[in-house]
Amino acid sequence: MSPEYLSPGVYVEELKTGLHPIPGVPTSTAAFVGASAQGPLHVPTPVSSFADFERVFGRSPGNPDLGHAVRQFFANGGRAAVVVRADGPTAEAALAGLDASAFNLLCLPPLLPGVDLPVATRVAAAALCRRRRALFIVDPAVAWASARDAEAGLESYMPQRGAESALYFPFVRGPDPLANGQVRTFAPCGAIAGVMARTDVQRGVWKAPAGTDVALKGGLSPAIALANRDSEILNPLGINALRSFSPVGTVPWGARTLARPGSADAEYKYVPVRRFAMFLEESLSQGLQGLVFEPNTAATWARVRTAVADFLYDLFRQGAMAANTTQDAFFVKCDATTTTEADIAAGRANLLIGFAPLKPAEFVILRLELRLAGGDA
């Protein structure tokens, strides 16, 4: 009902639209699954520091891989983690516990010293990350001693490859605080997750977590020295080399996913493009929840377009897209061309957005389905 104005003048009336500005979701909460000395089994437990981790899960001198992965995550810039203690030779039961947890990065350090995780566990981890819009940071096979070994063993090691996974090679070496600083070998996943978290804060999730400005911290070095010729073997496979450059130190020298060339995932062959797209999908999915009970009409579609365009424009201003104008940076469609009469009858509204990622490519297209009121389903 409109208010009654009793005298001439200028009046300002606040109208509720039912839709608030869309906030960006977190991008760098890391989930760790592994063996520990104590702690609840298969229960996701948030930790905000390595001290938090040790209070809950203790120290495991016999198998410290989980602890060191968490320690290196925080040492390299991580701020929030979720830890799940696994038991036995596989981690599928522990992974299942993450289905209801919020995370963006997944690390599975070895459950047993010097032993690869079962293939089925890696397959389950990749499937979980695809469902949850997260990235599985894959450690290399223990037996890979060269780039040629990685080339020969990749197919059997990761038979189901996609853009939800990124593999880093080789293992890293550094001082072990549990052994009076003795140098030992570690899985790289925790340090890489920390580098991604640090890059997200300093530059944004759209920036590649690679190169000489993102050196690994904690005195880590590659367990196997790699040269340019090795990178030439690894890059086309989607394997990211860890290399040492003086005076910078050890850096990720690649930012590729395991998306197969020619597959539906091929446009997401770069880690920052995949992670930025996942960030957009999750932010929009959560940010548009306020429209669930709105009528599926042209007026609602216009509000969707405005809210999404405002969100994307803010990211454009932060330098998240490879374009100089908004017209070249992104587009938003939610109208009668994306939503048919059958969609309306079923209570669906279809949102189509495209964005120009920070890489040499055309637009990447995202399609989201919104559930609105008024449908028969």
Structure, described:
It is a single chain. This protein is an alpha/beta fold and 377 residues long. The chain folds into 2 domains: 30-273, Rossmann fold (3-Layer(aba) Sandwich), CATH 3.40.50; 288-371, Dihydrodipicolinate Reductase, domain 2, CATH 3.30.360. It contains 11 helices and 14 strands. It has helices spanning 50-57, 65-75, 92-96, 119-132, 147-157, 189-202, 228-234, 271-287, 298-317, 326-329, 341-345, and strands at 30-34, 45-47, 81-85, 105-107, 135-138, 165-169, 172-176, 182-186, 221-222, 239-245, 249-253, 330-333, 348-355, 364-371. Helix 5 (147-157) links the parallel strand 5 and strand 6. The protein is globular. The two termini are 32 Å apart.
Write the layout of secondary structure elements.
Blueprint: E1 30-34, E2 45-47, H1 50-57, H2 65-75, E3 81-85, H3 92-96, E4 105-107, H4 119-132, E5 135-138, H5 147-157, E6 165-169, E7 172-176, E8 182-186, H6 189-202, E9 221-222, H7 228-234, E10 239-245, E11 249-253, H8 271-287, H9 298-317, H10 326-329, E12 330-333, H11 341-345, E13 348-355, E14 364-371
Question: What proportion of the residues form beta strands (DSSP E)?
Answer: 15-25%
Task: Classify the fold: give the CATH topology of the largest domain.
Answer: Rossmann fold
How are helices and strands ordered from N to C? EEHHEHEHEHEEEHEHEEHHHEHEE
Strand order of the largest sheet: 2-3-1-4-5-6-10-11
CATH class type of the largest domain: Alpha Beta
Radius of gyration: 23 Å
The average pLDDT is: 91
The tally of helices reads 11
Level-2 CATH architecture of the largest domain: 3-Layer(aba) Sandwich
Distance from N terminus to C terminus (CA atoms, Å) equals: 32 Å
Number of strands: 14
Low-pLDDT sequence parts: none
Largest sheet: 8 strands, mixed
Number of domains: 2
